[in-house]
């Protein structure tokens, strides 16, 4: 068995922006961002230490149709394009390469590049339509009023290159008292991915992204409710380190299989 360092070089295009404008540009160009494993979409500008580069899709042909649409935006903000070279270095067991690739072909479904976007009033209707498609219960207006105002990083859409929402996660940070100390916990209100994309690991990435944000915020634990009859969802969360805490009878009062399990994942150390 041999191990080597594989290296791949990509020639990409970046938009040169001031650091304070990165968020605005990422949101505007989300459908054209470089969105590949092991690579960041925003990097320091090697030419100007005071600037950042927002890296775009490596396929230059994809940029052509949108240049006219974004021309006014780029001109107004005085943004410029810059060529940039990125490298991917990773160790790989050469003897296992073929087997791993063949196995992954059966286990995962290829999908378009996907970007995670914060939910705001402009894309809230996409979340509404997605929830109607994914879940048997109806979420009230209070839910949709909360989501655009949620803490950063806890409510987001997964969107393809053309802006189509194919998944979402929505969470709420809740106060909780643990050992007579005030703490916070994260409740996953909804998480789901359209059926045709459920084998592309988007659901896992959405879950990991909010857990990562919770860890940064020193949140004690994350939890959610899952129907007792939904063994597929239970398996998914158990594989991600959750445990079944307890059963709640008649939690979903408006649908069949009303009983739910509370699944929980500890994040911070217990005091």
UniProtKB/TrEMBL annotation:
A biological process term (GO) from this entry: mitotic sister chromatid cohesion
Cellular component aspect of the GO annotation: NatA complex
Gene Ontology molecular-function annotations: N-acetyltransferase activity
Short name of any one Pfam family annotated for the protein: Acetyltransf_1
Residue ranges of every copy of the N-acetyltransferase domain listed in the record: 114-268
Ion transport among keywords: no
Keyword vocabulary terms for this entry: Acyltransferase, Transferase
Family annotation (InterPro entries): GNAT_dom (IPR000182), N-term/lysine_N-AcTrnsfr (IPR051556)
Record's keyword annotation contains Transcription regulation: no
Residues making up the signal peptide according to the UniProt record: none
Record protein name field: N-alpha-acetyltransferase 50
Gene: NAA50
